[in-house]
Protein backbone atom coordinates (compact mmCIF):
# COMPACT_ATOMS: atom_id res chain seq x y z
CA UNK A 1 0.00 0.00 0.00
CA UNK A 2 1.22 3.48 -0.92
CA UNK A 3 -0.19 6.45 0.98
CA UNK A 4 0.41 10.00 -0.27
CA UNK A 5 -0.57 12.98 1.84
CA UNK A 6 -1.87 15.76 -0.40
CA UNK A 7 -2.36 18.37 2.32
CA UNK A 8 -5.16 18.99 4.82
CA UNK A 9 -7.15 15.70 4.96
CA UNK A 10 -6.59 14.66 1.35
CA UNK A 11 -4.82 11.37 0.65
CA UNK A 12 -4.10 9.16 -2.33
CA UNK A 13 -4.16 5.45 -1.49
CA UNK A 14 -2.69 2.96 -3.96
CA UNK A 15 -3.45 -0.72 -3.46
CA UNK A 16 -2.91 -3.73 -5.66
CA UNK A 17 -6.28 -3.25 -7.34
CA UNK A 18 -7.34 0.37 -6.76
CA UNK A 19 -6.23 3.99 -6.92
CA UNK A 20 -8.21 5.95 -4.34
CA UNK A 21 -8.52 9.60 -3.35
CA UNK A 22 -9.96 10.45 0.06
CA UNK A 23 -11.34 13.98 0.57
CA UNK A 24 -9.63 15.51 -2.51
CA UNK A 25 -9.50 19.18 -1.49
CA UNK A 26 -7.06 20.68 -4.01
CA UNK A 27 -8.41 24.01 -5.28
CA UNK A 28 -8.14 26.56 -2.49
CA UNK A 29 -6.01 24.29 -0.31
CA UNK A 30 -2.96 26.37 0.66
CA UNK A 31 -0.97 23.20 1.41
CA UNK A 32 -1.63 21.48 -1.92
CA UNK A 33 1.10 21.48 -4.56
CA UNK A 34 -0.68 22.22 -7.85
CA UNK A 35 2.15 20.61 -9.82
CA UNK A 36 1.09 17.24 -8.38
CA UNK A 37 -2.57 17.46 -9.46
CA UNK A 38 -2.16 15.24 -12.52
CA UNK A 39 -0.27 12.57 -10.58
CA UNK A 40 -2.81 12.69 -7.74
CA UNK A 41 -5.61 11.62 -10.10
CA UNK A 42 -3.58 9.28 -12.32
CA UNK A 43 -5.36 5.97 -12.90
CA UNK A 44 -8.01 6.90 -10.36
CA UNK A 45 -10.68 4.29 -9.61
CA UNK A 46 -12.47 5.68 -6.53
CA UNK A 47 -13.09 8.88 -4.57
CA UNK A 48 -14.14 8.42 -0.94
CA UNK A 49 -15.64 11.25 1.11
CA UNK A 50 -15.85 11.51 4.88
CA UNK A 51 -18.41 14.36 4.93
CA UNK A 52 -19.88 17.29 3.03
CA UNK A 53 -17.74 20.29 3.99
CA UNK A 54 -16.07 22.09 1.13
CA UNK A 55 -12.57 21.39 2.42
CA UNK A 56 -13.28 17.66 2.08
CA UNK A 57 -15.59 17.38 -0.95
CA UNK A 58 -13.11 19.72 -2.61
CA UNK A 59 -12.60 18.93 -6.30
CA UNK A 60 -14.67 15.74 -6.29
CA UNK A 61 -17.15 16.83 -8.95
CA UNK A 62 -14.48 17.90 -11.44
CA UNK A 63 -12.29 14.86 -10.74
CA UNK A 64 -15.20 12.46 -11.17
CA UNK A 65 -16.14 14.04 -14.49
CA UNK A 66 -12.55 13.95 -15.73
CA UNK A 67 -11.70 10.41 -14.63
CA UNK A 68 -14.99 8.51 -14.43
CA UNK A 69 -13.98 7.33 -10.95
CA UNK A 70 -16.65 5.93 -8.65
CA UNK A 71 -17.51 8.34 -5.81
CA UNK A 72 -18.59 6.91 -2.45
CA UNK A 73 -20.23 9.10 0.19
CA UNK A 74 -22.99 9.03 2.79
CA UNK A 75 -26.47 8.78 1.28
CA UNK A 76 -27.36 12.49 1.53
CA UNK A 77 -24.06 13.71 0.15
CA UNK A 78 -24.13 11.08 -2.60
CA UNK A 79 -27.61 12.19 -3.71
CA UNK A 80 -26.45 15.83 -3.77
CA UNK A 81 -23.41 14.93 -5.86
CA UNK A 82 -25.64 13.03 -8.27
CA UNK A 83 -27.76 16.16 -8.68
CA UNK A 84 -24.57 18.00 -9.64
CA UNK A 85 -23.93 15.65 -12.54
CA UNK A 86 -21.51 13.18 -10.99
CA UNK A 87 -22.04 10.02 -13.02
CA UNK A 88 -21.07 7.06 -10.86
CA UNK A 89 -22.03 7.66 -7.23
CA UNK A 90 -22.32 4.96 -4.59
CA UNK A 91 -23.85 5.59 -1.20
CA UNK A 92 -23.64 4.16 2.28
CA UNK A 93 -24.24 5.31 5.83
CA UNK A 94 -23.01 4.85 9.38
CA UNK A 95 -22.40 1.20 10.16
CA UNK A 96 -22.71 0.09 6.55
CA UNK A 97 -20.03 -1.51 4.39
CA UNK A 98 -19.61 -1.17 0.62
CA UNK A 99 -17.57 -3.80 -1.21
CA UNK A 100 -15.33 -3.27 -4.23
CA UNK A 101 -12.80 -5.43 -6.05
CA UNK A 102 -9.97 -5.88 -3.58
CA UNK A 103 -11.23 -3.69 -0.74
CA UNK A 104 -14.25 -2.61 1.28
CA UNK A 105 -15.23 0.65 2.96
CA UNK A 106 -17.13 0.83 6.26
CA UNK A 107 -18.74 4.06 7.43
CA UNK A 108 -18.11 4.67 11.15
CA UNK A 109 -19.01 7.52 13.47
CA UNK A 110 -17.28 10.89 13.60
CA UNK A 111 -18.20 13.83 15.84
CA UNK A 112 -18.53 16.73 13.42
CA UNK A 113 -21.01 18.56 11.18
CA UNK A 114 -21.62 18.21 7.43
CA UNK A 115 -23.19 20.92 5.24
CA UNK A 116 -22.42 23.36 2.44
CA UNK A 117 -23.65 26.79 1.47
CA UNK A 118 -23.89 26.59 -2.30
CA UNK A 119 -23.62 29.32 -4.90
CA UNK A 120 -27.33 30.12 -4.47
CA UNK A 121 -26.71 31.04 -0.83
CA UNK A 122 -28.67 28.07 0.51
CA UNK A 123 -27.23 25.86 3.25
CA UNK A 124 -27.62 22.17 2.41
CA UNK A 125 -27.41 19.51 5.11
CA UNK A 126 -25.31 16.72 3.65
CA UNK A 127 -25.77 13.86 6.08
CA UNK A 128 -23.69 12.90 9.07
CA UNK A 129 -19.94 13.12 9.20
CA UNK A 130 -18.12 9.79 9.12
CA UNK A 131 -14.80 8.11 9.45
CA UNK A 132 -13.94 5.48 6.85
CA UNK A 133 -12.36 2.08 7.47
CA UNK A 134 -10.76 0.42 4.45
CA UNK A 135 -10.24 -3.32 4.65
CA UNK A 136 -7.85 -4.11 1.81
CA UNK A 137 -7.22 -7.60 0.50
CA UNK A 138 -3.78 -8.86 1.66
CA UNK A 139 -2.80 -5.35 2.78
CA UNK A 140 -3.10 -3.28 5.99
CA UNK A 141 -6.47 -2.03 7.24
CA UNK A 142 -6.65 1.77 7.11
CA UNK A 143 -8.86 4.10 9.16
CA UNK A 144 -9.35 7.70 8.01
CA UNK A 145 -11.00 9.32 11.01
CA UNK A 146 -12.45 12.21 9.00
CA UNK A 147 -13.02 15.36 11.05
CA UNK A 148 -13.75 14.36 14.63
CA UNK A 149 -13.23 14.79 18.33
CA UNK A 150 -12.27 11.86 20.53
CA UNK A 151 -15.17 9.60 21.56
CA UNK A 152 -15.23 6.45 23.64
CA UNK A 153 -16.76 4.30 20.89
CA UNK A 154 -13.43 4.53 19.09
CA UNK A 155 -12.77 1.48 21.27
CA UNK A 156 -15.55 -0.37 19.45
CA UNK A 157 -14.18 0.71 16.08
CA UNK A 158 -10.87 -0.84 17.08
CA UNK A 159 -12.56 -3.99 18.36
CA UNK A 160 -14.56 -4.42 15.16
CA UNK A 161 -11.93 -3.47 12.61
CA UNK A 162 -8.47 -3.55 14.23
CA UNK A 163 -7.04 -0.92 11.89
CA UNK A 164 -3.29 -0.98 11.30
CA UNK A 165 -2.97 2.55 9.91
CA UNK A 166 -4.63 5.66 11.31
CA UNK A 167 -5.07 8.92 9.41
CA UNK A 168 -5.74 11.23 12.33
CA UNK A 169 -6.91 14.89 12.44
CA UNK A 170 -4.83 16.95 14.88
CA UNK A 171 -5.41 20.60 13.89
CA UNK A 172 -7.70 21.73 16.74
CA UNK A 173 -10.53 24.30 16.46
CA UNK A 174 -12.58 22.16 14.01
CA UNK A 175 -11.28 18.74 15.16
CA UNK A 176 -9.47 17.40 18.17
CA UNK A 177 -6.11 18.99 18.82
CA UNK A 178 -2.78 17.23 19.01
CA UNK A 179 -2.88 16.19 22.67
CA UNK A 180 -6.41 14.80 22.46
CA UNK A 181 -5.69 13.06 19.14
CA UNK A 182 -2.68 11.40 20.75
CA UNK A 183 -4.86 10.24 23.65
CA UNK A 184 -7.30 8.71 21.15
CA UNK A 185 -4.50 6.81 19.43
CA UNK A 186 -2.91 5.61 22.66
CA UNK A 187 -6.09 4.68 24.51
CA UNK A 188 -8.25 3.09 21.84
CA UNK A 189 -6.00 1.70 19.10
CA UNK A 190 -2.99 -0.47 18.42
CA UNK A 191 -1.92 1.26 15.24
CA UNK A 192 1.35 0.24 13.62
CA UNK A 193 1.42 3.54 11.69
CA UNK A 194 -0.22 6.90 12.42
CA UNK A 195 -0.22 9.76 9.92
CA UNK A 196 -1.51 13.10 11.26
CA UNK A 197 -3.59 15.36 9.03
CA UNK A 198 -5.92 18.38 9.03
CA UNK A 199 -3.12 20.74 10.05
CA UNK A 200 -0.61 22.99 8.30
CA UNK A 201 -3.10 24.31 5.75
CA UNK A 202 -5.06 27.23 7.22
CA UNK A 203 -3.67 29.75 9.69
CA UNK A 204 -6.36 29.17 12.32
CA UNK A 205 -5.44 25.51 12.85
CA UNK A 206 -2.20 23.98 14.07
CA UNK A 207 0.78 24.62 11.81
CA UNK A 208 2.85 21.58 12.77
CA UNK A 209 2.46 18.12 14.27
CA UNK A 210 4.75 18.97 17.21
CA UNK A 211 2.06 18.92 19.91
CA UNK A 212 0.74 15.59 18.66
CA UNK A 213 4.20 14.04 18.54
CA UNK A 214 5.04 15.20 22.05
CA UNK A 215 1.77 13.80 23.42
CA UNK A 216 2.32 10.39 21.83
CA UNK A 217 4.84 9.80 24.63
CA UNK A 218 6.56 6.44 24.08
CA UNK A 219 4.62 5.73 20.90
CA UNK A 220 6.04 8.51 18.73
CA UNK A 221 8.00 5.88 16.78
CA UNK A 222 4.82 4.76 15.02
CA UNK A 223 4.06 8.30 13.79
CA UNK A 224 4.93 9.26 10.22
CA UNK A 225 4.90 13.00 9.53
CA UNK A 226 5.28 13.26 5.76
CA UNK A 227 5.69 16.46 3.87
CA UNK A 228 2.87 17.19 1.44
CA UNK A 229 3.43 14.94 -1.56
CA UNK A 230 5.54 12.38 0.29
CA UNK A 231 4.68 8.69 -0.09
CA UNK A 232 4.47 6.32 2.88
CA UNK A 233 4.71 2.64 1.91
CA UNK A 234 3.14 -0.02 4.13
From TrEMBL:
Tell me which InterPro entries the record gives.
Metallo-B-lactamas (IPR001279), RibonucZ/Hydroxyglut_hydro (IPR036866), UPF0173 (IPR022877), UPF0173_UPF0282_UlaG_hydrolase (IPR050114)
- Say yes or no: keyword Hydrolase present: yes
MF terms per GO, please? hydrolase activity
Task: Identify the domain of life.
Answer: Bacteria
Question: What is the protein's species of origin?
Answer: Shinella pollutisoli
Gene3D superfamilies given in the database record: Ribonuclease Z/Hydroxyacylglutathione hydrolase-like
What are the record keywords, sorted?
A: Hydrolase
Highest classification ranks of the organism: Bacteria, Pseudomonadati, Pseudomonadota, Alphaproteobacteria, Hyphomicrobiales
Keyword rRNA-binding in the entry? The reply is no
Name under which the protein is recorded: UPF0173 metal-dependent hydrolase ACFOHH_02340
The entry's family comment says: Belongs to the UPF0173 family.
Metallo-beta-lactamase domain segment(s): 7-198
Q: Pfam families given for it? A: Lactamase_B_3 (PF13483)
